[in-house]
Amino acid sequence: MINRPFFSCSRPKLKYPVIQSHKKEAVKEIPSAEKVTLLLERAYSPIDDEILKVGDEVRTGQKIKMTDGGEEYFISTVTGTVEGISEYIGYLGRSHTSISIKVSEEDQWDDEFKEISKTVSPENVMGFLCRLPGDSHLSSLINPVTFLNTIVINGVDKDLLITTNQLIVKTETQTLKEGMAYLKKITGVSQILLVVPPDLVYDAEKTGIEIKVINPVYPNALPRIVMKNILKRTVPAGKKCEEMGVGFINAEAVAALARAFNQGKIPVNKFLTVINKDGESVNVKARIGTPVRDILNFLHIEVNHGDRLVLGGPMRGNSIYSEDLPVLWDTDSIMVQDKDQIIFNSDTPCINCGECVRACPAGIPVNMLVRVLENSLYDEAVNEYDLLSCLECGLCAYVCTARIPLFHHIMLGKYEFERIKSMEESHA
Ligand code: SF4
Ligand code: SF4
Questions:
Q1: Average pLDDT of 319-340?
Q2: If one looks up domain 269-337 in CATH, what number appears?
Q3: Residue 10: pLDDT band by 50, 70, 90 thresholds?
Q4: Residue of 372, 373, 395, 400 to test ligand 2 pocket, by largest number of atoms within 8 Å of CB
Q5: Cα–chain-centroid distance for residue 42?
Q6: What are the residue ranges spanned by the domains of the chain?
Q7: Domain 34-107, CATH
Q8: Which fold has domain 128-263?
Q9: Interval between CA 316 and ligand 1 midpoint (Å)
Q10: Residue 308: pLDDT band by 50, 70, 90 thresholds?
Q11: Which residue among 118, 135, 342, 411 is least enclosed by CB atoms within 10 Å?
């Protein structure tokens, strides 16, 4: 495995946006949808019908087990009737279970968590808050692979043009403070840091959390670079930050944790940044599961044939082909690009200009890496061209002269490498 220095010398200077609004009222609340779709990160299996059936009534905040006697569950974000359970194939070909729910007019909250929330414990978090808005895997902080000594709360978003987590730091200082206390209690970790850009220091100080200020140049908010720049630790290729004793969580998830225990209700709303075709953005609050279409309609954003819809930001986001896809627990942004602004990828072969290599903050020979990935040589990609050192920043694709979709080649390569490895291990 190659271990490369982290920083090369010639990278584009792309700055994170600075949140403009100081007020919660500036956040637009999306009205209740007629139908929501919940996508579960588990392969679809018709056997699930034994527990949850089409026609079942569900309540808001209700914990629903997927299999009889199993531990896996999901939380209904609305009150209504299950209309369909099916398979959805998502990014990189991952299979999900899709549950569509026809929403009732009256929101009826399930009260099982209300009593549970009186006790703040890791068991109760694992049992009811497996997903929090803004963070998909709180379990990695509660049941870490190795002992955690530090948790970093990210107050900067992981992509450009997005201000979802900045919004939380700006408008929810008290909730963040309470969330940090809950986080300490359930994880036992005493050092908690809040990472913010310089413009948010004044607001962040009100939380009482130890602040670390980053230079707001992309991709400085990505965990491996925070590790390097702030904590002065290099994460070796193929390792996770948690394996180095450091966990990461978004500011939105910390605030959601506080709301859950303060109100006795499982959070079901997601804040997100919607970026319009002219680059203007607005922060909205929507029920998880709301179709993208409802949000765009509410904001009077028209999507025409040939326009591009992206979940996420310009560097790391994924294009989606349908406005019916829902807002998920970790959807931080929806971006709409006019067809005339889109720079299309191409089939042009690499011209070996070296721009990607100069731009890569992990010092990866991206020009060579992409050659082996295009030929599905995943072991070579890992062992000879350092695939697992990739920080997933997308800068290589941004600068690529030949417009090769380098970022998605890399993401697919990582996914396939892990998938094949776990298949081989299970057959060993
Ligand atoms: S996405 Fe590209 S530029 Fe970024 S770390 Fe990975 S290989 Fe390097
Ligand atoms: S930037 Fe694109 S064209 Fe240039 S070396 Fe890298 S992959 Fe090849």
A1: 94
A2: 3.10.20.90
A3: low
A4: 400
A5: 17
A6: 34-107, 128-263, 269-337, 355-427
A7: 2.40.50
A8: Rossmann fold (3.40.50)
A9: 11
A10: very high
A11: 118
